[in-house]
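Appendix B. One record, verbatim.
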Amino acid sequence: MIVGDHYDELAVVAALDAGADDVVSQPWTVAELLSRVRAVLRRLEREGRSGTDAAEALSVDDDRHSVRWGGVVVTTTGREHEVLLALIAHRGRVVTHEELMRSIWGPEWSGSPMVLSAAVTRLRSRLAAAGAPDVIENVRGVGFRLSVGHTRGTSARDTGSIEGWNVP
C-alpha cells in the first residue's frame, strides 16, 4: 500500500502494475486509510502471507548495484545481482532455469548451464553471511523462486518496484 501526497494517474497505474495493493493519495481521512490497511491485511491473511515476514529486510537498489539484508550490505557480482533482480521481478513465482539463463547469460551462451547454479549458491552464501534465511528456493528440475514476502527496490526497470515503495 502506498500513501502519499498527490499522485498523478500515471504514477498510480505504475505503482499498481508494479504490485502495490493500493494507492492512497491526498486528500484522505484517517478512517479511510485505516479501512484500506485492514482490507490489505485481510487479503494477506487469506493468501497465507504475513506482513511481518523477516524477509522484509531484503532491499535492492538496481541503480547503485546495492543489496542489503537488514542494514548489512551484501556484495554481489554482476551476474549474482542480475539473478537476484530476476527473482525479485517474479517474486513468489518459479523462474525456470531456461528463463534465467536466457535473460542473464543471453541466448547465445554456449558455456555450461551450471554457471546459474554456481551463481545461486554464491548468492545464498552471501545473503546467509548477512544473516538472511535461505530465501531462494530450488524447485527441483524447474528453476528457482524467491520466497521473500516483501522487498524494496529502487528501479522500476528490473525489480518492478518504485523508489522508496515497499511492494509485496
